[in-house]
Every structure is written in structure tokens, then in C-alpha cells.
Amino acid sequence: MRGQIFFVLLAGLLALPGCAPTQHAVVQSTLGKASGSAEMERHIDEPGPVVLETINSADWAVPLSGVLNLKNPQAVQAGLKDRDEPIQVYAHVLRHPQYGNFLVDTGVAQSLVDDPAHAGVGWLVRKFMHLEKLQIRKSTEAILQDLGGKVDGVLLTHLHLDHITGMPAIPATVPLYADERELVVTGWKNMATQGTTDRLLAGKQPLQGWHFQPDPQHRFAGVIDVFGDGSVFAISVPGHTPGSVAYLVRSTQGPVLLTGDTCHTRWGWEHTVEPGDFTDDGARNLESLKALKALVAAHPKIAVRLGHQP
Ligand SMILES: [Zn+2]
Prior knowledge:
- The chain is globular.
- By secondary structure, it is of the alpha/beta class.
- The chain is built from 11 helices and 14 strands.
- The protein has one domain: Metallo-beta-lactamase, Chain A, CATH 3.60.15.
- The protein has helices at 2-15, 37-42, 64-67, 73-77, 110-114, 116-119, 123-129, 140-146, 194-201, 266-271, 282-298, and strands at residues 26-28, 33-35, 51-63, 84-96, 100-104, 135-136, 153-155, 176-179, 207-210, 223-225, 232-236, 245-251, 254-258, 303-305.
- Strands 1-9-8-7-5-4-3-6 form an 8-stranded mixed sheet.
- Residues 1-15 have low confidence and may be disordered.
- Bound molecules: zinc ion.
- Zinc ion is lined by residues 158, 160, 240, 261, 278.
């Protein structure tokens, strides 16, 4: 009988129409030109023009089972058990001599922490996000102040809430960029967060969607040259979400890979273990993680900056 009830509930859930992460408008990106991994790798080890600064906007703690697949044989072998895992929420500041100041992801806005309901964070999300465990280190407001308020765009790795928690501080005129596939309908998981995502993006510019062409070398799901000058590449790494993007930045200090949440943790990177419950498609996420690790193995000068740990 219990089995029958479970089956009926499951059938009901599967029958529900899926849900996109947001209903915010999306248009085709005006920035970015189709590229490929060979083109990206040709200049990867030469210093580039971008001054890059990674800022820890907030310390936080989340379940380890969210950021690491504890069923991965490597994690089982290491005896990892679920617990609270300390993480950080980053914003990366890119200063390009011609194209201006860009953020990769947004950090956390002070106004969101001070009054989450007013910032648009729904009650269910407030309950599950455990914002009481979040400690601001440098708010998005403070980051923007250091830039003299001049931000020319936000490049998003994906649309999970902890990557757009800085949106309340981002001026409404600033262009926002993300993979257009981030908007696809995946399932009922998004139902809990769609309202909050929509409210955080309300009044902002439509999302400018990257349209990735297949990588001629088939190492990645696609590569885009963001400014068309070989300084910053958007790399399609689906799995964590359908439209997850990593960024390769040719900085003045050498090449830097911003993995986004294709890998949240240092342990996950070192042991090639994909994220856990926070990921849409674990198998695909693992493939993308392996592709990023292969890129770094081929170019050991690359400094790796992970989604949520140093
Ligand atoms: Zn994420």
C-alpha cells in the first residue's frame, strides 16, 4: 500500500509540467564570437590584458552532500559523511583595458542579507538557504563602490541563487550574460526557486544568452571568445545546470580558470568528484569536470579558482 502511494505521488510529480529557472526575458547576446578549444589553447599561456581580482563576498555553510557526490566511489573510499561544509560566495572582478569592468557572478548584497524578504527571497527559499549561516566579508555594494560604480556587464556562470545574490546591488542598466540553455525547462526542482530568481532579476536588463557552437576539437560543449580579442573565453560545461559556463581569463598574472559550480570544493577538484544534490545531471557534470581538469593538465600555468572554496 505504501509502495502504491509512493508510486502515485511519483507519477504525479513526473506528470507536472517542468519549470525553467526563471521567466526573465532572454535575448541573443551582443557580445562574444564563436571560438574553439584549439584557438583558446593557442594563446592560453601568454599573459593577457585583464586585471583579475577574486573577492570572497561571504562565508557560508551548506551540507557536504550538496557540494560533493558522497556516493562517488572516491568519496565512499575516503569515508566522507554528510555534515556542514564551510564555503565562500565569490565575485570576480575583471578589468579590461578596452571593454571596461565586468563581474563574473555577483557575490552577496548587504541589502539582501539585511532584509531578504524585501529583496525578493521567498519564504521557502529563506527557510532552506539558512541565511543565518551567511557572514558577509565584502558586500556587492562595497565591491561596486571600489569600482567607482562603473560596471559594464555581469558574466554569469549559471543562475543558481547564490550566484545572483548580489543582484539587488547591480544597477538596472548593467547588461547580464548567461548561456541561453540556462533557461531551458528541466523539471520540478526549479519550482521552489523560480519566484525568487524572477524577483532578483526583476527590473534588470533581459539576459543576453550565449549561443555556443560545437567545439571543432570536441573537448568542450562549446567555446566563445567573449570580447573577440582572445582575452576571456566562456566555456560551455553543462551538467551542474544545462547552461553552466566556466571562464578562462588571460590575466596580467597569467591564465586563470573560473570553474563556476562544475566544481564547488577543493576536495572535489583534487579527487575528481562531482557535486552532489545541488547538481542537475551528475554524470554530465563529471564529464565537464574531467574536461576542465584535462585543460589544466595540458596547461599547468593555469590558476584554478573553484566555485565555492579557495
Ligand atoms: Zn550552483
